[in-house]
Input
Amino acid sequence: LTILSLIFVVVGVTYQTSASMSPGIVYDSATKKPLSSASVRLVRVDQNKMLEARITGADGRYGLLVEPGKYKLKVVAAGYAEYISADFEVTKPTLVGIDTSLTKLA
Output
């Protein structure tokens, strides 16, 4: 059982550090500083249904593991205008993270 657990840990580390998989960052468009506690929602376009949501960490980072399909992201943070991405297509399971700048509300 210990060897099996070690195999899962090694495979997980390799999977998460693949060059094609990196987290996205949500940041302030003016200051370029990361925004913590922003809400990032993954919406499946063909169903107009939210599939997952993440809250950014103190460093503004987030990641969403996504299956093949067509999606968009909706990002909101207190005091900022909502961001809605253009539709994008995922052709194989991957970690999606799109760097996103939010504009402060006046």
User: Anything to note?
Assistant: The chain has one helix and ten strands.
